[in-house]
């Protein structure tokens, strides 16, 4: 269906956005990294010029390998080790997302990576929550209100997932919405962390799992059928279970059918997938096929710094290179809100009072 609305960058910029998959340590402003490195005496940066540093992250993350992509995080994590640093980074994250038109965001990070300065896991979480509270207050005062929820990530190569899951449950009424595992996927299947996932299910808590990014269907299958993930981080390789029949009609295998039937949300991040080699181009990115097949697709940034991106940019790329309409953007935004780790009534409130009126004002058909 073609849309009546011509999607210029200014319209996409104004559209309300919901973001489920954004890493706090993958979204720092280059200037902030430079400042924090100077203040703390971290001398490992490849350059102290903010513009060059932004470009360095982009180039280094563009390797075609998830493992090399992840190496760039050593610099951001290095300058997120004190309470002040964490507050600043979280505050700026909320402000940057709000300025990008994001009205609801889930921001994730791994508390276990922020202990080198002597903070406890609890102190780390509290500093990030404080930064998000400040950022949300300032964004509201500036007329761009945003709701930010924090997800706690455990690193899949490490062995602290049960502890981090307990931390997520402990802070669930103070702004933590759920749990995630991230890091190198090959060799670290989600079932390594079954104990954490079983604990979370017993606690009626929410979690998502990075799966089907650098590794294929077995990882997605384990994440859903063994671990019980509510959502999939990326999940892009689910297309390996979809074949195009002789008549050109896509045929879903049992796992793909299950994911679609159960409305399992896919947290897809097109630019990130190009960098890690999980997809070849925006035009050919599986997100458009999956949208057309009505999977519960959502659009995400993953790491704004490493991909030099924003929600506006990801959406505009899909419009320009894969033919997405404003109705498609509205649909993906409502999908994200329906899939948010937020109580049902609060999700509805944002859908009915923010997302739908926002898209209607831009001329989108309901
Ligand atoms: O796309 C991704 N796939 C897997 N792991 C990731 C991705 N992006 C970031 N991280 C990992 O998650 C940690 C906590 O935020 C980051 O430090 C990074 O190692
Ligand atoms: Zn991610």
From TrEMBL:
<dbReference type="InterPro" id="IPR001365">
    <property type="entry name" value="A_deaminase_dom"/>
</dbReference>
<feature type="binding site">
    <location>
        <position position="183"/>
    </location>
    <ligand>
        <name>substrate</name>
    </ligand>
</feature>
<feature type="binding site">
    <location>
        <position position="23"/>
    </location>
    <ligand>
        <name>Zn(2+)</name>
    </ligand>
</feature>
<feature type="binding site">
    <location>
        <position position="23"/>
    </location>
    <ligand>
        <name>substrate</name>
    </ligand>
</feature>
<keyword id="KW-0479">Metal-binding</keyword>
<feature type="domain" description="Adenosine deaminase">
    <location>
        <begin position="16"/>
        <end position="356"/>
    </location>
</feature>
<comment type="similarity">
    <text>Belongs to the metallo-dependent hydrolases superfamily. Adenosine and AMP deaminases family. Adenosine deaminase subfamily.</text>
</comment>
<feature type="binding site">
    <location>
        <position position="25"/>
    </location>
    <ligand>
        <name>substrate</name>
    </ligand>
</feature>
<dbReference type="InterPro" id="IPR006330">
    <property type="entry name" value="Ado/ade_deaminase"/>
</dbReference>
<dbReference type="InterPro" id="IPR032466">
    <property type="entry name" value="Metal_Hydrolase"/>
</dbReference>
<keyword id="KW-0862">Zinc</keyword>
<comment type="function">
    <text>Catalyzes the hydrolytic deamination of adenosine and 2-deoxyadenosine.</text>
</comment>
<protein>
    <recommendedName>
        <fullName>Adenosine deaminase</fullName>
        <ecNumber>3.5.4.4</ecNumber>
    </recommendedName>
</protein>
<keyword id="KW-0378">Hydrolase</keyword>
<feature type="binding site">
    <location>
        <position position="302"/>
    </location>
    <ligand>
        <name>Zn(2+)</name>
    </ligand>
</feature>
<feature type="active site" description="Proton donor">
    <location>
        <position position="213"/>
    </location>
</feature>
<dbReference type="InterPro" id="IPR028893">
    <property type="entry name" value="A_deaminase"/>
</dbReference>
<keyword id="KW-0546">Nucleotide metabolism</keyword>
<dbReference type="Pfam" id="PF00962">
    <property type="entry name" value="A_deaminase"/>
</dbReference>
<feature type="binding site">
    <location>
        <position position="210"/>
    </location>
    <ligand>
        <name>Zn(2+)</name>
    </ligand>
</feature>
<feature type="binding site">
    <location>
        <position position="21"/>
    </location>
    <ligand>
        <name>Zn(2+)</name>
    </ligand>
</feature>
<feature type="site" description="Important for catalytic activity">
    <location>
        <position position="234"/>
    </location>
</feature>
């Amino acid at each position: 269906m073609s849309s009546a609305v011509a999607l210029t960058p200014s319209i996409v910029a104004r559209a309300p956005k919901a973001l489920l998959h954004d890493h706090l340590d993958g979204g720092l402003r280059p200037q902030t990294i430079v400042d924090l490195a100077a203040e703390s005496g971290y001398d490992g940066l490849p350059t102290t010029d903010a513009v060059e540093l932004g470009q360095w992250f982009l180039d280094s993350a563009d390797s075609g390998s998830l493992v090399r992509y992840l190496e760039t995080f050593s610099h951001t994590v290095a300058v997120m080790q004190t309470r002040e640093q964490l507050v600043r980074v979280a505050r700026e994250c909320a402000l940057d997302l709000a300025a990008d038109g994001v009205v609801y965001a889930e921001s994730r990070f791994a508390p276990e990576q922020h202990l080198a300065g002597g903070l406890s896991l609890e102190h780390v979480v509290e500093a990030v929550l404080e930064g998000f509270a400040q950022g949300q207050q300032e964004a509201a005062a500036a007329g761009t209100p945003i709701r930010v929820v924090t997800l706690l990530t455990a690193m899949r190569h490490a062995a602290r997932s049960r502890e981090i899951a307990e931390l997520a449950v402990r802070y669930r009424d103070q702004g933590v919405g759920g749990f995630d595992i991230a890091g190198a996927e090959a060799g670290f299947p989600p079932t390594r962390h079954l104990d954490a996932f079983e604990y979370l299910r017993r606690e009626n808590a929410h979690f998502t799992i990075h799966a089907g990014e650098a590794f294929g269907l077995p990882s997605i299958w384990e994440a859903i059928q063994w671990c019980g993930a509510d959502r999939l981080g990326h999940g892009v390789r689910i297309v390996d279970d979809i074949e195009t029949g002789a008549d050109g009609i896509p045929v879903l295998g049992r796992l793909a059918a299950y994911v679609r039937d159960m409305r399992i949300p896919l947290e897809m991040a097109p630019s990130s997938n190009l960098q890690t080699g999980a997809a070849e181009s925006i035009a050919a990115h599986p997100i458009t096929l999956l949208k057309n097949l009505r999977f519960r697709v959502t659009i995400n940034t993953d790491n704004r710094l490493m991909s030099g991106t924003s929600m506006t940019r990801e959406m505009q790329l899909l419009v320009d290179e894969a033919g997405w309409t404003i109705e498609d953007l509205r649909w993906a935004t409502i999908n994200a809100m329906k899939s948010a780790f937020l109580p049902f009534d609060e999700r509805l409130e944002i859908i009915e009072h923010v997302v739908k009126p926002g898209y209607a004002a831009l001329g989108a058909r309901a």
